[in-house]
Design goal:
The protein has 111 residues and is of the alpha+beta class. It contains two helices and five strands. It has a five-stranded mixed sheet with strand order 1-2-3-4-5.
């Protein structure tokens, strides 16, 4: 993320409602990133619906506590890290816009 000129806002953000592995900002974009380690790397390394809901609630909590403007674009990304085979030491897969929660921030955000 730093290579793409994102500024890291938080790492392993925890609150009673959930956790976000990495939160970064670039201009008017706020990105909440879930990082999954799996061996072997598979689609099972994606968060399920309940986990996505916890990540969204944690993102809302982060925005409220940090008084983040509701005008920012929110994005939920997924980074998968795995070892697909003995011949490949590791593989990193970045999935921008891994799921959509655009309606959520406007519904729950309060200054």
């Amino acid at each position: 993320m730093a290579v793409q000129f994102y500024h890291i806002q938080a790492w392993r953000w925890k609150c009673p409602s959930g956790e976000v592995d990495l939160i970064a900002r670039r201009g008017q974009r706020l990105v909440f990133i879930e990082v999954k380690f799996r061996s072997p790397l598979s689609d099972a390394a994606a968060p399920g619906q309940k986990q996505r809901a916890r990540i969204i609630r944690a993102a809302e909590d982060f925005a409220k506590r940090r008084r983040i403007s509701p005008n920012l674009e929110w994005r939920f990304n997924l980074i998968q890290i795995g070892w697909p085979s003995k011949d490949v030491p590791w593989l990193l897969r970045h999935l921008p816009h891994a799921w959509d929660a655009s309606a959520v921030k406007n519904r729950f955000w309060r200054p």
